[in-house]
Specification:
single chain, 322 residues, alpha/beta, 8-stranded mixed β-sheet, two-stranded parallel sheet, globular
Length: 322
């Protein structure tokens, strides 16, 4: 009887199908974001001895971030590597870290994330998702086909705003700009046709999405630091063998920390490359316009309470960034 039990046990283990976790991202294939993920994927396969397999769908093949979130909810996908836009569709509180002018320097963002990261992670878990690690797109600048030296210039431009980005929509309208609302995959064709002539992104993001070939000018000052993160549905995560979950999650955090360092370094390199390619740097707005932008940022931030995040959370983020 005992030998039979051993045979049945080992037969069951041999035929058990590996757990596959399907993750999508709008980050282009071959970008630093997807290259780091492929290294993480290989380490997970080795660590789990093939019990856990990760599959990545890069480059918008699964659609915009809204499409990825929808497919996660229906079980077609298990996770996503998102910008704040997609993250906010799951946990709106994350937008407190993305408000205009909230963070322009990495050290202050790092301090706030260290202080409040656990609270934000708990918000995702409460909604049925496990946060696997924080990421970034980088410091956001304005890129345009035409020089934008004032708010008056900006109001004349065809400014792209991500359809699902509530912050940029509110900010542009507060500044008297009528934005062109488009999904991320629609931006490059719109730049080609002239439907839009002004966009917002980090230098690395602009280059990775090939927008840099369509613009001539870039703002010197950044408006925010575009954050991101990878999340997996709790339902999918619970399929991972219990003895591997903590190990894989710690490994994921390690690779996300490495990704943050590489993203910041590569953004500096991308900026240097864009300058060499002839993109001209435009000075920041004059004092009058700067004050108007700062005033609009404060007003927009206040307007997001309590719809997206609480006054208490906003107060804690403001205190943590000092």
């Amino acid at each position: 009887m005992l030998p039979l039990l051993f045979v049945l046990l080992f037969s069951s283990l041999a035929t058990a199908k590996p757990v596959e976790i399907k993750i999508a991202t709008v980050a282009p294939r071959g970008s630093i974001w997807t290259r780091i993920f492929q290294r993480f994927k290989a380490r997970v396969h080795k660590l789990s001895k093939g019990q856990v397999k990760l599959r990545l769908y890069p480059g918008q093949v699964q659609g915009d971030e809204r499409d990825v979130v929808r497919k996660m909810r229906t079980g077609q996908l298990d996770g996503g590597a998102f910008t704040a836009i997609g993250l906010a569709m799951i946990n709106p509180e994350v937008l407190v870290m993305q408000m205009p002018g909230m963070f322009r320097e990495y050290d202050k963002l790092d301090k706030a994330r260290a202080a409040l990261g656990k609270r934000l992670e708990a918000g995702f878990l409460k909604r049925g998702y496990v946060l696997m690690g924080w990421g970034e797109v980088g410091k956001v600048h304005m890129f345009s086909k035409h020089p934008v030296k004032s708010l008056a210039d900006l109001r004349k431009r065809k400014v792209w705003v991500w359809t699902d980005d509530p912050i940029s929509k509110a900010m542009m309208r507060k500044l008297g700009v009528s934005p062109r609302l488009l999904s991320l995959p629609a931006v490059l064709p719109a730049l080609n046709t002239g439907m839009v002539d002004t966009v917002f992104n980090s230098p690395l993001g602009c280059a990775a999405l090939q927008w840099h070939a369509k613009v001539k000018y870039m703002s010197t000052e950044s408006m925010a630091i575009a954050i991101g993160a990878t999340v997996v549905s709790k339902k999918a995560w619970n399929k991972v063998p219990a003895d591997l979950r903590d190990k894989i999650r710690e490994l994921s955090r390690k690779y996300h920390r490495a990704l943050l360092k590489r993203t910041r370094r590569d953004n500096e390199r991308a900026l240097a490359t864009l300058k060499k390619l002839g993109i001209q740097m435009l000075p920041s707005y004059a004092n009058k316009d700067r004050q108007a932008v700062e005033k609009a940022a404060i007003a927009v931030t206040k307007s997001f309470v309590p719809r997206y995040f609480s006054k208490d959370l906003l107060r804690k983020v403001l205190a943590a960034r000092r």
